[in-house]
Each structure stands twice: as C-alpha cells, then as structure tokens.
Amino acid sequence: MDVCGLSHANCIDFVASVPFSISSCSASGWVCDEPSQQQFPVSAKQLIDEEEKVKYRATLWALFPNRSYDICLTLNGDSDEHLSDARGTSPLIRSESTKYCFSYNTLPLGCGIRDPVSFIYDATILCRSDFLDCLLAQPKDYMFIYLSKHCLKELIARLFYQTLFPLPLSQSLGLCSLPNYRQGRYCLDLEGEEYPWLRNKKVKRLVSSGLYSVAVNRDLSNSLRTAQEYHLQRCGSTWLNDNFIEALTDMGDDKQLNVGILAVELIEESTGTAVAGCLGFGIGSVFHDFTMFTCQRTTESYGTIITKVMGAALQACGYNMWYWGDKIEYMKQYEGSYGARFLGREEFLRRWALYRDKKSKYFVGDFLRAGKGLLRSWSATLSDSNAVVRC
C-alpha cells in the first residue's frame, strides 16, 4: 500500500487508504531555532477525497523550510498491508512489521520571509478542518500572514474562524502578525454558574439610573475610527489603520462563516454621546473583542459598565467564552468572581473548535438591540438631531 507524502515549505501531508500514525519526526542536521511542539503519535484523520473515496491524512506542522526530515509511520491495528512510498522508493528502515521510516524534504521558501516556520504563505490552508492542529504545534507566540486585497473579507473571516486576529505591521494591510500565545489565551470563561455582574454597588446604581443605554452597530466605521483615535491618543500609534477599518466595515454587512462584527457603545442619554465601546466578533457561541475604548476618564467607570453589560449579555445568550487576547493589568479585577483566566493553548483551541460551530441561544448583538440586556437599547427611531455623537 502506497503512502503519498506531499511536501510544503513548513508542513508535510501524508495520505493513505488505511489508518496509520506518524510515530516520530526528526530534522536531519543542525536546527537553529525552536522545534515544532507537535506531540506524537499523530493519528491520521479520515477524509473523503474528490472521488468520494475514504482516505486517511496526517500532517506534520511547524517544520523548517528546505530541510530534510526522518519520519516514521506506523500502521494502526492488525493489518496485512505494507507501506511503500508513492515516490517508488522503499522505506529507509523497517524496524517492525508495521513501522516504516522515510526521509522527506520540505520545500524552500523565498528569502526575507519573517519567521518561515510560522508563516502562512498559502491561505487555502485556513480552509482545512484540522488547521487548529497547526496552531497547537507552533513553537512561538506569533504567526504571520500577508493580506492582499484579493478575497480580503473571506480571508479575514477565515482567520477569525481559526482564532487568529491579524495585527497589521504597517499602515497598509500587508504583513500581519497573528497572536497564538504558547501560554494560552486570556478569556472570561463563561462556562458554569452565572456571574454577579451587578454586585458592585456603583455599577448597579449607574445601570439602574436610566442615564445610559447601548447602541449596537449604529455606524461601524465611525465606531472603529473612535477606537482608532483612542489608541492614538493613549499610545501614539495603532494597528487599527484606515485599510483595516475599511475591511472590517465591509465585513459588517456580510456574515461570512457566520462571523458577526459587532460594535456595542455605551450612550449617555442626556447628550447622545458614545462614552465607551466594545468592538469584536462573534462566531457560534464564542466571542472575541479586539478592542475597547473609553472617551473620558471619569469616576463613572464607563469601561467597567460596558464590560459588565457585555459579560452579562454574553452569558445570558449562552456563549461559552469571551476571548480577550493578551492580558492587560486592569483585567485582574475580573479574575475569581468573573472567570477571567488563561485558557492553556490546548484547552482554548479544543473549546473554540467545539463552540464556534455551536449556535448560541441568541446572537449577542440582537439580544442587546432588543433591550434584553442590563441597559435599554438606544432607539433606532430617534431623529437625526438625536443621533449618537462621537466622543
């Protein structure tokens, strides 16, 4: 029985007609960087090929380009089959009746590629159902991809679906880093008991005062630009550049892969001013906010209010987790009583894979827009003179 090995620059696919596993993989010669974190054995997963035949595929991820690897494959269970290489070569070693070792070379990658082990040079790989295994194998905290304007909405939606949020490294979209922290992702774990969102007396007083409401996707482009200004004022720079704002705004009108872009703003009723906001996306029953903003530093704790409003709504809607990204100092206050914690890389990816395709009871944007959250919805029927004013 032939096993077909298909080499890429930083991964190798093996396909056969019977179940098998990859029992080991080692690079030949000197390696100058951290190796793949992939755990062995790697069991081949069943797939249906273009001719509707059952095949089995196993992939080695996070490999070095232009490198030779010694790879051992093992047939699963009792089998009279024998492995041979589809290239027509015999195994280098056959140490047991069902264990076969071959040598394969990864393909070269162009010069000047940033971190070639973690570079996504072929975007079609994002369509694979086993792509999260690639994330699990990565030896570093960031991956990289080059975003072009061709099929941009679909590409960003695919990245979101696969847990990856692109951070542009220049004022054009172009090269982007993709956080995939080895420690895991910092989240509000919404699995389990309902959290006491209104336990804080000050927050409870402000929520019940009738002075504030929430607006949902009133003007996505304007909300993103408000967040952009917030970044620039606080940090002097921002990854939220004009091209990225345009792309995210376009996505707001088209839910690809069930990815819903959301801008939730806290509105001061007396002035119609947006005083804080949360911008993110929902997929199935997971949610990731990619930025928040507060327009004023006051004793009213606008940032805390919008966080509690969002958290209560997400939990009421049946979301499993709220992914926050990297941990920032202020987030410590949500540990303990509100479930904020690092989910290890393996746990995070496992739960994301399960719940991204599991529909929540309500889409959180629809829930808040219907006035079912802690605050009433800012009326969509207000006259233009009472439209939301940006801070």
CATH class of the largest domain: Alpha Beta
Give the total of domains.
3
Number of helices: 8
Low-confidence stretches: 380-386
Q: What would the CATH topology of the largest domain be?
A: Aminopeptidase
* Order of SSEs: EEEEEEEEEEEHEHEEEHEHHEEEHEEHHE
Through-space gap between termini: 67 Å
Helicity range: 10-25%
Number of strands: 22
What is the CATH superfamily of the largest domain? Gcn5-related N-acetyltransferase (GNAT)
Can you describe what's shown?
- By secondary structure, this protein is α+β, with helices and mostly antiparallel strands.
- It folds into three domains: 2-105, Immunoglobulins (Immunoglobulin-like, Sandwich), CATH 2.60.40; 116-184; 186-390, 3-Layer(aba) Sandwich (Aminopeptidase).
- The chain is built from eight helices and 22 strands.
- It has helices at 131-137, 152-161, 201-208, 220-235, 242-251, 302-316, 345-355, 364-369, and strands at 2-7, 12-16, 20-27, 42-43, 45-48, 54-60, 68-75, 84-85, 93-96, 99-105, 119-120, 142-147, 167-168, 174-179, 185-189, 212-216, 259-268, 273-283, 286-294, 321-325, 340-343, 389-390.
- Strand 13 (167-168) and strand 14 form a beta hairpin.
- Helix 4 packs antiparallel against helix 5 (242-251).
- The termini are far apart.
